[in-house]
Amino acid sequence: MIRRTILAAGVLLGILCLAIAGMHAFSPLLYSPASDSRAPDHVNPLALKHVTSGRSARIIPLVADIIGTPGSLVLNIKSGDFASASRDLQEYRDSLRNLDTLVIQLDLDEGEIAKFRRAGRENAQILAELLNGTERWDDLKTLEVRFRESGDTAMETSVRYEGETLKRKIQDLYREYLEQDDVILSTGEKFELDTSGHKKSITEFREIVNSITAGDEEKEGTLAGPGDLPVSLNVSPDRASYGDTVRMEGQVKAAGSNNIGDIALFVDSARNVTLRTGPDGSFSHSYRVERDRAGTHTVFAVYEGSLFSPIESFTVEVIPSFLQLGPPRVQSGKVLCQGTLFAGSQPVTGAPVEIRADGKRVATAQTKDDGTFSAQVRLEPGTYSVRAQFEGEGFPLLPSGSESYEVLVPVPPPAGVDGKGFFTDPLSLAVVSGFLCLSGAGAFYYLRRRRHGILPARTPLPVPEMMDAPVSVPVGEQVFPPAPPAETPPEPGLPLQAGDVRDVFWQELFRRLRVAVSKVASLRYPQSLTPREICASCRDTRIREFVCRFTSGYERVMYAGGDLPREEKDRMMEAYRAVLGILGGKDH
Amino acid sequence: MLGVVLVLLHLSATNADYSRYNPGWNGTSVLFDMIDEADGTMVTDPSHLPGQGDAMLLFVAPGRKPPDEVREELRDFLSRGNCLLIASDREEDNGLLEGIGSSIRIRQSDIISVDRFFDDPSSVIAFPTGDDPLSAGIPRLVGNDPSFLTGGTPVFATSLLSFRDTDDDQRLGKGEVLERFTVVSRETIGNGTLYVVSDPSIFINGMLVANPPTGNREFVARILSLRPVLLAEQGYSRTAEGGPVIRVINLVKDATSIEMAAITLSMLLLGLFLAFGRRDA
To answer: Which of A176, A219, A369, A427 is the most buried (most CB within 10 A)?
Structure first.
């Protein structure tokens, strides 16, 4: 009764275990540090990934490079070593690029470091223009001398106009460079870095500007005043911002001739547009401010390549930009981010907008003509803080960022749940069906073989006359074994086949012997004992010699694969009878 | 029998934060194993603090507010030339600091640093500043959501690329200034030395057994070996927290005579169980 109860409890426990295991079959992870990652006071470090330590040690040298490099760069520009200056500029840009990467990686894209980075980028732009402008300035001086000597007045005037434009631009660049001074120096001092490189660059820059303007007194009067020139030019308004239109209009007043002809408008010494003048020599052009550098821009017009207007200018001012991001939508593992970028009421077109997830850039979208942008981002399952960022680079606009959204990218459902997985996959179905068929065939073969091959073992003993008791005697009900068979086993020499009657005979004798011995030796599970164990269990008894003789012969009959001589078989039978004889005596 | 042993093992543990009976990541069982190995003594009553000036008393994560007498005892302990280390990230423990005559104050705030050991803003690395026996040869200390300290002499401080996350967005934003924050500070009181650590989480198991090693274990080893006598406060510290069952079990574990009696009783029960079980069978 107790055993049955224990068995039933064991079965129940087994079923319970299987049920619990089955519940977790699709997600076998019962515990992970990540599932126990936070407590009120701390985070489980075992659930976190190690990152490279000493990350500030990577930032500080870059900041030092960005502060120090302009010193030699501007010195090289001043001394006319433009090749070295180009190398310095490239080095400076590389440092900025590395800092950009680090700043995004370390989520420092706002605050002091971000300001420093913007100032550095602005300075890189200024220094690149200074390098190009100074190089061109040297060329223009040479060209001016050559055209003057050759008497080519028109070309000489053209060169002087370009030089004048360049001079104003370099002065403008210097002013802009000084505007970054505060941020650069304060950052350097905060990080306890050497700022002498930056200070030196300011000194050298000023000297470049001074050297360019030094010749102004000599050239004073060489450029004719506006009233004297045959082409008038008016630029309005003189201050503009992103999206504004600057009107450039004028009139050709060459006396005594037909004034219809081509007039080219130059903005910052670069040809912007060529127009056809009206019958009265008037012309007009609307210039839209878009990707123009903040600061002063020069404009002049040239009629038929020989008549020049006075140099006019307008200033582009920096204004804030407004970036808006709509709530991101998650669609089959992808996050759709849509929004708009405006400068005041003007949509910003062709501007790069970065999509960042947890501070890391995951996509860059381009704004369309109406200022809208859209990006689809694939993210791993998890929760992200998604926002958009516009850096303002190349635009006269301040950077802007959108608000952040918490976005949950769900774990994709397990295969089969959405109807797309296992059961609809023909390959999976074919493989499973194949295995089922193979298992069925294997089972059929096994059962058939068992029926045909082992069936004789279940047939009645072929020599029943040898036995005193039925073949199958339930263990436990038989107090003493039956009498031994009266006859000797069949003769050897018969062909061996499955279910050989001699094997069955000896097996039956062994079984009876085992039952008998187990009673004497109080063996609990006699069916599980081997012949040798039966022999060993009779230690210190009178039957030991006979039992061991029988089991030894039995092993040879059953496991050695050969037959025994007649004498040997007789000895086994004698041993068997001796055992039963002893056990049947008065002591037992 | 096995079931009974397992139940007892289960009941002798807890998941309470900072508890020495908590073998999980947020417990301090590893710290107290180290204290045991260093022959440390548990102090539940500060009036029993030794009179000599060669002891280090470790007071990790103060829990309930110690009364004025206890503060006085601690102050006397310090004045006798001993060393006291208090690890807390809560501003309410400033009363304790004030009571023992310290000018160091805990500022409860989320500190985030670019220099982190794990990929989480809470994992702030502090570096040694100046010369102190507690920091000599220790390259770093890894905090886990630390507060910061004002006053005293800085012993460990964050790098300059650290900031207070005032808007709780875990990133440097407008108005958040980069600066260094002191995580361990020292002050001389009387003839003794007070150390204040603004993050008791540096002592939790997860930080001491993390792989790769945080280096906090070396810091703990340095604390434990700083003075010849090592004491651990267990009267008011959250490290002593545990349920009534834990107390009984640990009482048995701690007292040898009771432990022996319990083992004898267990063996007797086991023998009876086996004997009766065999007879029934």
So the answer is: A176
- Segment A63-82, tens digit of pLDDT: 999 999 999 999 999 999 99
Compute the 3-state secondary structure of chain B and give helix, strand, coil in percent, each to the nearest 5: 35, 20, 45
Taking contacts as CB-CB distances below 8 angstroms, the residues of chain B near A191 are: 160
Contact yes or no for B172 and A108 at CB 8 A? yes
CB of B99 closer than 8 Å to CB of B244: no
Is A190 at the interface with chain B, CB within 8 A?
Answer: yes
| Fold that domain A322-409 belongs to in CATH | Immunoglobulin-like (2.60.40)
CA distance A32 to A48: 11
- Rounded to an integer, the average pLDDT of B12-18 is 81
pLDDT at B111: 92
The 10 Å CB-count burial string (b at 16+, else e) for B81-110 is ebbbbbbbbbeebbebbebbebebbbbebb
Domain chopping of chain A, boundaries: 54-217, 322-409, 422-453, 457-583
Whether pLDDT at A47 is above 90? no
Domains of chain B: 17-241 (3.40.50)
Which chain A positions have a beta carbon within 8 Å of B171's beta carbon?
107-108, 110, 359
Are B26 and A44 within 8 A, CB to CB? yes
Q: Who wins on pLDDT, A485 or A529?
A: A529
User: Which token pair is A19?
Assistant: 């049920």
Do B123 and A43 count as a contact with CB atoms less than 8 A apart? yes
Amino acid symbol at B141: L
**Are residues A41 and B206, on separate chains, in Cβ contact within 8 Å?**
no
Long-range contacts of B41-45 (CB under 8 A, 24+ apart): B41/B229, B41/B230, B41/B231, B41/B232, B42/B231, B42/B232, B42/B234, B43/B231, B43/B232, B43/B233, B43/B234, B43/B235, B44/B234, B44/B235, B44/B240, B45/B235
